[in-house]
Design brief:
Strand order of the largest sheet: 1-2-3-5-7-10
Bound molecules: coenzyme A
Distance between the termini: 28 Å
Radius of gyration: 20 Å
Shape: globular
Number of domains: 2
Largest sheet: 6 strands, mixed
CATH class of the largest domain: Alpha Beta
Length: about 270
């Protein structure tokens, strides 16, 4: 499944998607947007994949949009510029956000500008303490365009969003954890191991229940109360059909039979 700019490794239900332009700090050029769109489409329907991890090769997660191949080289090609911008916006702000499987950003190094939207759209994010984040747009006389301002509005506290967007100051993984941009920061040497442990834990949960967890949370965020409550009832019915009622038969049934205590943990659904 590897492409020119992306490598994919699938092990034990976890797909690791690696941005693979290390010499360019994994800056997102037009080819990378095409490749990742294709990879996400294929993994979506691959039953061997239960959880996605997105990360970067070398010392960068992603240095954001490719300033040369996108902003510079396409400046006189408005149609191509628009085509790539649409692709870039779609996979980062919509495809990842509503992906039917859990997604985790593993920020191993440089993470600038447009890469903030990848981190924000993933369900979970872990960073190396040593990682370097930055909204560098203001430093090149720009502002967080594309999907980035909306990502800031979604996840950042207003003071943090405007402080980092207006100063362009870089910050590290520990600060990203403090302001809630990532769940947790680990020393770089432990990042992959710790992220894999969490991914494996989630991969052991029921995949339909995971999808419903995302759908119920993400869509109800944008709905008025009555619509959200109604939507969630419909989602429960959808889950029941897709699982063949497993949550009530096994999940609830086994608890009622005294076989386990869900409050203390679940059973590995991959073994069923
Ligand atoms: N777009 C295009 N090319 C990029 C890039 C980007 N966003 N970020 C890095 N690169 C390229 C560099 O031009 C350089 O290419 P070269 O070897 O052909 O000269 C290569 O990647 C390595 O980068 P370099 O600057 O030498 O590495 P560094 O470790 O000294 O600095 C960064 C790394 C990320 C701090 C620095 O490259 C940088 O500031 N990049 C721009 C980040 C940015 O503003 N992103 C926002 C985009 S919306």
């Amino acid at each position: 499944m590897d492409t020119e700019t992306i490598k994919v490794a699938i092990n034990d239900g976890i797909a690791k998607i690696l941005f693979n332009r290390p010499k360019k700090k994994n800056a997102m050029n037009p080819q990378l947007h095409r490749d990742i769109t294709d990879v996400l489409e294929r993994l979506r329907y691959d039953d061997a994949v239960r959880v996605l991890i997105v990360t970067g090769a070398g010392d960068a997660f992603s240095a954001g949009m490719d300033l040369k191949e996108f902003f510079h080289d396409l400046k006189d090609q408005p149609k191509e510029y628009d085509r790539i911008l649409r692709l870039a916006t779609e996979w980062r702000s919509r495809t990842l956000r509503y992906y039917p499987k859990p997604t985790i950003a593993m920020v191993n190094g440089f993470c600038f500008g447009g890469a903030f939207s990848i981190v924000e759209s993933c369900d979970l994010a872990f960073a190396a303490r040593e990682a370097k984040f930055g909204l560098s747009e203001i430093n090149f006389k720009g502002f967080p365009g594309g999907s980035v301002s909306k990502s800031l509005a979604n996840l950042f506290r207003p003071r943090d969003a405007l402080f980092y967007a207006m100063t362009g100051r870089p910050f590290d993984g520990a600060e990203a954890e403090r302001i809630g941009f990532v769940n947790k920061a680990f020393p770089l040497a432990e990042l992959e191991h710790e992220t894999m442990k969490i991914a494996a834990e989630i991969a052991g949960k029921d995949p339909v229940a995971l999808q419903m967890t995302k759908d119920a949370y993400r869509h109800s965020l944008e709905m008025p109360l009555d619509a959200a409550l109604n939507f969630i009832v419909a989602k429960e019915a959808e889950m029941t059909i897709k699982q063949g009622d497993a949550w009530r038969r096994e999940g609830i049934g086994d608890f009622v039979a005294g076989e386990y205590k869900p409050g203390l943990g679940g059973r590995d659904s991959t073994r069923r």
